[in-house]
Amino acid sequence: MTGCVALVLCVAALTAWRVTADAKELSITTIKQEPYTMSRGSELEGYCIDLISELSRELGFQYKLNLVKDNRYGAVDSSGTWTGMIGEVIRGEADLAVAPLTLTAVREMFVDMSTPFMQTGISFILRRDSASEDSGFSLLSPFSTDMWVGILIAFLLTGLCIFLVGRISPTEWAEPGTEEHSFTLLHSFWYITGALTLQGAGPHPKALSGRLVSAIWWLFAVLLLACYFGNFNSMLHSDNKHVSIKTFEDLANQDVMDYGTVEAGSTMSFFKNSKNPVYRRIYQHMERKKSYVSSMEEGVRLAEEGNFAFIGEAVSLDLAVARHCQLSRSEDAIAMRAYSIAAPLGSPLVKNLTLAILKLSESGELTYLRQKWWASSCLAAGNAHTSEALRPHDLRGLFLLLGLGLGIGLLLALLELVSRARNQAKDGKKSCCSVFTSELNRRFGSKGESGEQEDSDKGKA
After folding, report:
1. What is the largest CA-CA distance in the chain?
2. Mean pLDDT of the chain
3. Number of helices and strands (H, E) in the chain?
4. Which residues, 6 or more positions from 62, have their beta carbon under 8 angstroms from its beta carbon?
């Protein structure tokens, strides 16, 4: 009986609250921050806008949405007055504050806060090139891995081409049966290696085809070395010094990169009140350098420009990393915290908001909103470069020039052999094709085949 009475009273209280809420239009304050609240023409959209709409549908209230006047979340200033959205709720200028408001003990003393609608922690973002660890193979850094693979393939193809030209061209190897072939496979690779080091390695090609291939490879080697040393020099004198920064301790122990967080926010308060010596040093550095930023957008912009690490809530930083491919978020996350809705002390709204948020969480609606407004992939992937190393497409013209030169060189060598075969065919009154095939067999066939061909020619004579 007692349980039934309690249930009736709860239903009556909820019904009375709905009537009161319908009679009074709630004033809700929020702050512009992607993707929570964003402008789309004259309208607002985002995660928090959808959350307010779902809560309104669940609890049946009308509302009017306003942006916070001073563009702050809420902190106590030097005169003891609360600023931002928390200040508006305390002064009665707003019934609710719906935004990525961090649930803290200090705020809970002055306003009532609902159950969290999102969990997060404190982390930091910085440019990928600043976050990368110095490699012991820095001599390879001017070229990307794909570029080195392309150079290796070009080296092997050029060596093989020199070897084939040396065997095919009659000028390079006039009498296969009596003369020794100077351009063996080993010597061909040794010859082009000497060109890479700008040194000669004789004997040099005598035929036009061999000289063409050699000249193209020399040109390729000179331009390639110029690109390598030019990019290597720019990396050595780059303004972005490469340091390994992966944790907050790494951040505190270096003085190359500046860092900061949003001024008068909960993240700043955490470092200010922390007893951890590492976090205290971070706060002292930010105070000494006055490296605070006025908004999340400014912090992301400074991190993109380089030599700056922006400290903030991990869930907001994840969105920045998804939208800006050159940024990277540290895996180190501290001070796990939550986002809640703020209401005046003693407000009857909080209990009902808590129940509605729990229902939305259990039904998967909060997960859906998170997936909707958080990008799952980098939107600027086509324009972002995670490394300054040269890639094959940067020097595709050089590789095309080398390929064209190798093809023409092989073609000229074949034409030289065809010309010789034609002259021999006229002298011996044989078909040009049979003489050409015989020449190829002498140059690439076994000694036995060459000996049988010579015996056959002698027998016919």
Report:
1. 128
2. 81
3. 18, 11
4. 21, 22, 25, 26, 56
Q: What angle do CA 420, 422, 424 make, to 5 degrees?
A: 70
Give me the amino acid identity at 114.
S
DSSP three-state, residue 246: coil
Look-up: residue for tokens 């002259």? 423
Q: Both tokens of residue 326?
A: 């050159």
- Reported as a single tens digit per residue, the pLDDT across 325-365 is 888 899 899 988 889 999 999 998 999 999 999 999 999 99
* Residue owning tokens 């065997």: 167
Task: Write the DSSP assignment of 445-461 as a string of letters.
Answer: S-HHHHHHHHHHHHHH-
Cα-based torsion angle of the residue sequence 246, 247, 250, 252 in order, rounded to the nearest 10 degrees: 140
What is the DSSP-derived secondary structure letter of residue 82? B
Cα(266)–Cα(272) distance, integer angstroms: 10
Q: Which of 30-34, 181-185, 205-209, 309-313 has the highest mean pLDDT?
A: 309-313
pLDDT at 373 over 70: yes
Q: Which are the contacts of 323, defined by CB distance < 8 A and separation ≥ 6?
A: 375, 378, 379, 380
Q: How high is the pLDDT of residue 376?
A: 55
Q: How far is CA 112 from CA 15, 103, 361, in A?
A: 22, 10, 20
Between 71 and 201, the higher pLDDT residue: 71
Local structure of 458: helix, strand or coil: helix
Task: Report the C-alpha gap between 331 and 383 in whole angstroms.
Answer: 25
Report residue 296 as tokens.
């999340």
Beta-ladder partners of 124? 311
pLDDT tens, 30-82? 999 888 999 888 889 999 999 999 999 999 999 999 999 988 998 888 888 99
Q: What is the pLDDT of residue 375?
A: 65
Compute CA distances 181 → 165, 186, 405, 410, whole Å. Answer: 11, 12, 23, 17
Tokens of 286: 């930010």
The answer to whether 431 and 421 are in contact (CB under 8 A) is no
pLDDT classification of 238: cutoffs 50, 70, 90: low
